[in-house]
Amino acid sequence: YLFFRAGRDKIYINDYNSALYILSDKKRESELKEFGFPFQYIILAIENNNTIYGLKHGLEGYEIVKHNIEDNNIIWRFSFSIPLNASYYPYLVYGALSKDGSFYFNGPEKYYALDSETGRLKWSYHHADNGMPSAPPVIGLDNIIYITSNSILRETIIALNSKGSKLWEFPLAV
């Protein structure tokens, strides 16, 4: 699998085997970013062209990592678990940064809001039993977070306020 994310003037591409490629819009050349350890993240978001939010997963569990790739510094880590009965595919994790300093991402049954500076949990929202999102969270101009929940029985769009409370939901025909 390849994972693409866009920064201000760069495109970040990483694969499941630990390579991180950075393509520059201005130079029309690529750079392979080398790390002293395998770059085992799925990139979820880019901040300021040098800081990534990534999903790291393995036998130890799951982590969201904020990583400054310019100086190779891990800024913070947020660990989370998944229910044993959940079908969970790491490449179906989506993330988004908001202007208010929040980083939003999903697990198999919850959406999470983290403080982007500290990595502390602000809130979590349980969206469906054994449900998975079918699209990244979208942050509206009014700071409303629009999420999806896809269960066996239905697909739903849900609007949350910045405190994680549900404003409304709209079921879609499946």
Question: What attributes characterize this protein structure?
Answer:
single chain; 174 residues; mainly beta; 4-stranded antiparallel sheet
List the helices and strands and how they pair.
Elements: E1 2-6, E2 10-15, E3 20-24, E4 30-33, E5 42-47, E6 51-58, E7 61-68, E8 73-80, E9 95-97, E10 102-106, E11 110-115, E12 121-126, E13 138-139, E14 145-150, E15 155-160, E16 166-172
Antiparallel strand pairs: 1-2, 2-3, 3-4, 5-6, 6-7, 7-8, 9-10, 10-11, 11-12, 13-14, 14-15, 15-16
What is the terminal-to-terminal distance?
Answer: 27 Å
The shape, in one word, is globular
Mean pLDDT: 78
Report the sheet-strand fraction: over 45%
Q: Give me the Rg, rounded.
A: 16 Å
Largest sheet: spatial strand order? 1-2-3-4
Strand/helix succession? EEEEEEEEEEEEEEEE
The poorly predicted ranges are none
The helix count comes to 0
Structural class label: mainly beta
Helix content: under 10%
Largest sheet: 4 strands, antiparallel
Quantity of strands, as a count: 16
How is this structure best described in words?
The protein has 174 residues and is an all-beta fold. The protein is built from no helices and 16 strands. The strands form four sheets. Strands 1-2-3-4 form a four-stranded antiparallel sheet, with no helix packed on it. A hairpin with a 4-residue loop joins strand 9 and strand 10.
Task: Summarize the model shown.
This protein is mainly beta. It has no helices and 16 strands.
